[in-house]
Design a protein that fits this description.
Blueprint: H1 2-10, H2 25-36, E1 47-52, H3 55-61, H4 70-73, E2 76-83, H5 88-102, H6 110-120, H7 125-149, E3 153-157, H8 162-169, E4 176-185, H9 203-206
Antiparallel strand pairs: 1-2, 2-4, 3-4
């Protein structure tokens, strides 16, 4: 646990990346594996992650990202896109994956599938998007923790225009909407932010023991 706390204390929202330093394919795979293994409600993983290295595309996205330099300077740009639309296929595909992975009888999962459908399918679209977005944020946190363990820097970003991202990346046609951006790479020595003491609420302010 001490290592976890050390990693959390080490990481910060990197404001300036070293554009010349790139993440190895092995380390990238580790971060993506952490996203794949991230918990999600019912295990449904109602999101998709775009891993963007294309320089021209990132330059196109930068104006829709408040012109922040991290978008183009970081080694990789991860866009977490939540499902904005879904029907029974989301649950049916998950159940089929359970059958294929665990070798269980599909009939044994029918009750669970019906339960999930009763809780999710009749929700208004805006509530569905809120729910899927929350799941995407959990996955982004898993990526940040894995990166910190590798001493790879990240910056989670909400400072962008989702509608423009969706248009540029063609997400709407896929029933997806961008909800959070994660830039991943290595901090620049010129980023003074890395030297700032962390500012957090005290335990007394933050926690209530009942």
């Amino acid at each position: 646990m001490s290592t976890t706390l050390e990693n959390l204390n080490w990481r910060y929202a990197t404001k300036k990346f070293d554009a010349d330093k790139k993440i190895s394919s092995q380390d990238l795979d580790t971060i993506l594996k952490a996203i794949q293994l991230s918990p999600s409600s019912y295990g449904l993983q109602p999101y998709h992650i775009l891993v963007i290295t294309d320089e021209a595309l990132r330059k196109e996205l930068q104006p829709a990202s408040w012109n922040q330099s991290q978008i183009v300077d970081a080694s990789h740009l991860l866009v977490f896109a939540a499902k904005s639309e879904f029907g029974s296929e989301l649950i049916d595909d998950y159940l089929q994956n359970v059958v294929d992975t665990r070798g269980v009888n599909p009939e044994n999962l029918k009750g669970y599938g019906d339960f999930m459908k009763s809780k999710l399918l009749d929700l208004p679209n805006n509530i569905k998007t809120t729910w899927t977005s929350r799941q995407a944020y959990i996955a982004a946190q898993s990526a940040m923790l894995a990166a910190a363990e590798l001493k790879i820097d990240t910056c989670p970003m909400e400072g962008f225009e989702p509608a423009k991202y969706d248009e540029i990346l063609g997400l709407k046609d896929k029933g997806l909407t961008s909800v959070v951006v994660l830039t991943v790479g290595y901090r620049s020595e010129e980023d003074d932010t890395q030297n700032y003491p962390k500012v957090r609420k005290s335990n007394k302010e933050l926690f209530t023991h009942i």
